[in-house]
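Duplicate of #3305? Posting structure anyway:
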């Protein structure tokens, strides 16, 4: 019988996914333009996961696809600048839940 998934497993998966997206953005900025294979090697992440993240980041307007590879858009600095605040808000929410 398979082990049941905890209600927190999805939350942990989402946090890991967000972390992967942020790491991918930073590596892309440092090595741009960069292709899927090189990103996969630089991050130690399978190519299919790199493709998925790039699609999502492009949809959000954070990555621009070029013929040479992915590049960060002009939204990068604003997004990265807001990450810390978003994480602080998340921590505050978790603390409120913990204190309930």
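Output from current build:
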């Amino acid at each position: 019988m398979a082990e049941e998934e905890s209600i927190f497993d999805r939350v942990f998966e989402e946090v890991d996914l967000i972390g992967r997206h942020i790491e991918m953005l930073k590596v892309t900025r440092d090595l741009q333009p960069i292709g899927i294979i090189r990103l996969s090697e630089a991050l130690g992440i399978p190519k299919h996961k790199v493709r998925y993240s790039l699609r999502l980041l492009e949809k959000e307007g954070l990555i621009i696809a070029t013929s040479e590879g992915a590049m960060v858009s002009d939204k990068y600095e604003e997004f990265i600048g807001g990450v810390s605040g978003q994480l602080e808000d998340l921590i505050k929410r978790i603390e409120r839940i913990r204190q309930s």
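Confirmed duplicate; merging threads. The two ends are 34 Å apart (CA to CA). The chain has a mean pLDDT of 91.
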